[in-house]
Amino acid sequence: MPSRVLILGIGNLLWADEGFGVRVAQTLQRDYVFPENVTVMDGGTQGLALIPYVQESDVLIIADAVDFGLAPASLVEARDEDVPAYLHSGKTSLHQVSFQEVLALCKLMGQGPEQLYLVGVQPVDMKDYGGSLTPEVKAQLQPAINRILAACLELGLPAQPKTEQDDAADALDMARYERHRPSAEEACRVGDARFLPG
Fold first, then answer.
1. pLDDT, tens digit, 9 for 90 and up, residues 72-88
2. For residues 64 and 98, what is the distance between their CA atoms, to the nearest angstrom?
3. Which tens digits make up the pLDDT trace of 161-174?
4. Whole-angstrom Cα distance, residue 64 to residue 88?
């Protein structure tokens, strides 16, 4: 049984489906209790700042939106040596390159996870600035969570559903975020045409 497991959601909530990994991590934190040696973390777009956390893990489980070149909203799993190859595939955000570097640097230093596991989704839209997940990608949240829970069970580290929810208001809660998002008329979602060529 591994001594330290890190479940890491990476991505950017401000770019529609790019926020998938973060939403997975938030849901796991909100709805489940894990054994003490399992940490669930919203890694956001921290890139190289994640090195210490990755170095301390024996098993790293990653949730992310990755361009696999598949049909939109496809869910994909990868393990061990296949994970860096997927993370290198046609990504349009800066965090992906730097997270691949995180894994490479940890390997060079001889510190880091012995096992890697990626649950990724093929994004539908990553250009809707300030947008939430598209309906197709949102529908993959629970299937992705189920795969991560199954991976933890396989490691002998089952999660338990929380019996009570935290009443604290979370400013980043997806439903709240969607309710309070300004309309396209109130806030431009694709950039200001006055400053963009063409």
1. 999 999 999 888 766 65
2. 14
3. 998 776 555 767 88
4. 13
How far apart, in whole angstroms, are the C-alpha atoms of residue 32 and residue 39? 11
Report CA-CA distances (Å) from 151 to 7, 51, 60.
10, 23, 11
First to last CA, the chain: 57
What are 15's two structure tokens?
Answer: 């770019």
What length is written for the chain?
Answer: 198
User: Does residue 11 sit in helix, strand or coil?
Assistant: coil
Helix H, strand E, coil C: the string for 92-154 is CCHHHHHHHHHHHHHHHCCCCCCEEEEEEECCCCCCCECECCCHHHHCCHHHHHHHHHHHHHH
Tokens describing residue 74: 């496809």
Of the pLDDT bands very low, low, confident and very high (cuts 50, 70, 90), residue 195 is low
Tokens of 8: 């890491």
Amino acid at site 84: P
Q: What is the reported pTM?
A: 0.85
Q: Give the angle 25-12-62 at the CA atoms, nearest 5°.
A: 40
Are the beta carbons of 5 and 59 closer than 8 angstroms?
yes
How far is residue 26 from each of residues 10, 105, 106, measured CA to CA in Å?
11, 27, 25
Q: Under 8 Å CB-to-CB from 134, ≥6 apart: which residues?
A: 16, 17, 73, 123, 124, 125
